[in-house]
Amino acid sequence: MILLCQMVHFILFASVSGGCVTRLFKDSYFQGGNIATVFTPSAKYCQVVCTHHPRCLLFTFMAESSAEDPTQWFTCVLKDSVTEILPRVNMTGAISGYSFKQCPHQLSACHRDVYMDLDMKGMNYNGSIAKNVRECQERCTNDIHCHFFTYAAKDFPSVEHRNICLLKYTQTGTPTKITKLRYVASGFSLKSCALSNLACIRDIFPSTVFADNNIDSVLAPDAFVCQRICTHHPSCLFFTFFSQEWPKESQRNLCLLKTSESGLPSTRIKKSKALSGFSLQTCRHSIPVFCHSSFYHDTDFLGEELDIVDVKGHEACQKMCTDVIRCQFFTYSPPQESCHEKKGKCYLKLSSNGSPTKILHGRGGISGYTLRLCKMDNECTTKIKPRIVGGTASVQGEWPWQVTLHVISPIQRHLCGGSIIGNQWILTAAHCFYGIESPKILRVYSGIVNQSEIKEGSSFFGVQEIIIHDQYEMAESGYDIALLKLETTINYTDSQRPICLPSKGDRNVIYTDCWVTGWGYRKLRDKIQNTLQKAKIPLVSNEECQTRYRGHKITNKMICAGYKEGGKDACKVRGCSPPSERLQIRMFDTF
């Protein structure tokens, strides 16, 4: 009996089925279930790696001095369990915890920490002098290949290595080894924090094959999923996808992940039924986790079966997959017409890499992916949906923060555009409310691409309050911003969600272009457009803007954008007052 009581104190069973668990268990080790071992500088980063691994549910991190053998220090052991339960035993120096797959607000791969006196080993491919560790981290963030770095401080014993910033990479994106070393600091690239200044190419190019080295290959139902997989692969810079119409049957739905020394494709080959594109890792928006809400009809995903459940419809099947933590994707088999139950079979599945092992067409199934990792998108986003080159007008979900503000008196019409910045707040322009005496005559419509979608019975948000900047006088004098407080809160979906406001870290970033969206005029004295318009326009320095707007004072509260020779600008998209005949650069207030 005494022995049994002692056993209870040091053997516990850990289950991941109870939802989000953020607690870390010190001096604890999960027994069994090992699927991979990597090196990480902390338990916190080990948890990040576990969260983004397709199979990892639990982990154990071996901290410094956790074992007599220093080569075991800083190992991160990723674990899985068919039963979702593993025994936890006492072990000095070990730290154990759970994946954040169940935690909607903890899914970001962004990791800003810098680790003093740690040398993270990898392939050193670039060494140069840096003023400090932050400059070294910024250099890594803006280098296409860099995964992590080590910086030698001014007190480093070797004089020739002082203030040297070493950029490093590995095939896995994690160090091959971590050792203690005084007067150095190590950290990771901040690309996953949306802080890279590298070019971002979102477009997907049809009838194009990138002829570069393949570093990996997976199966995907379309080019957008292939692009998302490439984005989250540590070494993938661009990809080629063979569609289901590709001539060679064995290569259909194949997603080829690629890289090159220059970071760009060396050769582009024109081939029908192939599509190619780039990783979105360098884009200045919140890097999305692997989330795809689409359904793929007449498509079966093959993989290891977890369970078969009777459900009503493919949406219920997707929800079932989302609720089962080990499920990665599913196939729903609709019921036969003669079946009275009206329930079909929901096949919950997984694989070693999170992608189907085979994709079959023409068998009547409806397939898709878990939405568990989509829950992160309840937060703000500046995500811009990738598009196939050749598209012109905006599409559903491309600008989910965009709203159309209508006035209903004397007749209902589009008044201005605006942006969702919170679940009860819209940011718009102050000049829109000239002559508007009450918020009661305003309506806000979200998730709208075409004005013709708005009917008499369309749902809308009433406006409770209009808050105009207290220093606003006229549009040209600045402070042309206003807030609308809605009467009810917005339920975030794929088509309506907030945009991220600029962070403190964005203050020193130099941008070259911006996107402007709205239902404005496509030419002066034209009519309002039915379909949401978009225009990419170059930013202009305030100094140059001032020389062109000598009659106005350009302040640091404004930004200027437009083409010197005329053309696309925010007036024509948004519907502001006509610019001068000579000047095609427009002033805008900063938010």
From TrEMBL:
Main subcellular location of this protein, as a coarse class: secreted
Signal peptide region: 1-18
Keyword tRNA processing: no
Any GO BP annotation: blood coagulation
Domain Peptidase S1: 388-591
Residue ranges constituting the Apple domain according to the UniProt record: 20-103, 110-193, 200-283, 291-374
Keywords per UniProt: Blood coagulation, Disulfide bond, Glycoprotein, Hemostasis, Hydrolase, Protease, Repeat, Secreted, Serine protease, Signal, Zymogen
GO cellular component terms given for this protein: extracellular region
Annotated compartments: Secreted
GO molecular function: serine-type endopeptidase activity
Protein name: Coagulation factor XI
Provenance organism: Marmota monax
